[in-house]
Amino acid sequence: MMRIRLTSGLVRLGAVVFVGLALLQATPLQAQDVTAQTLVDRAQVQDLITRYYYNFGKEDPGSFAHFYAEDAELILGDTHFKGLEGITRAYAGAGKNSPMRQAYAFNVTISNPLIVVHGETATARLIFTEYLTAKRGDAPTIRTQGREYATFVKTHGQWRYRTRRIMSGAEVPKGWTD
After folding, report:
1. Looking at the domain assignment, is residue 63 inside a domain?
2. Are 159 and 122 in contact (CB under 8 A)?
3. Where is 133: in which H helix or E strand?
4. Under a CB-based contact definition with an 8 Å cutoff, are residues 130 and 145 in contact?
5. DSSP code of residue 56
6. CA-to-CA distance for 48 and 39, rounded, in angstroms?
7. What b/e readout covers 82-107, taking b as 16+ CB neighbours within 10 angstroms?
8. What's the pLDDT tens digit per position in 60-77?
9. With contact defined as beta carbons under 8 Å apart, do 82 and 146 qualify?
10. For residue 99, what pLDDT band results from cuts at 50, 70 and 90?
């Protein structure tokens, strides 16, 4: 009796694994081959993105430049900021009077990150949502939501943004490939 249950359980497990593998084969967007190095690189890129978003609301706008490669570009709509000086200028414009600095709390969440590593470069796309709480006890409100499309380069063993494009809506940048 015990042997029959164990065998039928293994058959069910085998069927689940088979169906799961068949579904993976049929997906329109194939996953990247996973190696120990791609897992480490993905984790490092995601950590860079997370730390970048946690940096919002800090007093020193120049601190954002540390996340970028020397020849990086930040693209906000139709406005392009090139190089570390340009990127520092982009964040200096936020100023001390911005709503996020005057609020009780400003939080940004990121979701659905799709990170693909290509050796010493990588791409990522994600959705971000900004929440603003005006004063203690208030419910947070959504300030904005959008998408980030970014490319990264590994420089001196560290991942850095090469390009960071912020867009609204669901449109994918022209020519984008993961």
Report:
1. yes
2. yes
3. strand 121-133
4. yes
5. T
6. 14
7. ebbeebbebbeeeeeeeeeeebeebb
8. 666 888 999 999 999 998
9. no
10. low
Q: Does one domain contain both 16 and 44?
A: no
User: Partners of 160 in the beta sheet?
Assistant: 153
Per-chain mean pLDDT for the chain: 83
Evaluate whether 123 touches 116 at the Cβ level (below 8 Å).
yes
Beta pairing partners, 100: none
pLDDT in tens, 115-155: 999 999 999 999 999 999 999 999 999 999 999 999 999 99
pTM: 0.78
- Domain carrying residue 141: 33-167
SS3 at position 73: strand
Q: CB atoms < 10 A from the CB of 149, how many?
A: 19
- Count how many domains the chain has: 2
- Strand 105-118: give its sheet, edge to edge: 79-82, 68-76, 158-167, 141-155, 121-133, 105-118
Say if residue 13 is in the same domain as residue 81.
no
Residue 66 sits in the same domain as residue 153: yes
- Domain membership of residue 5 (yes or no) is yes
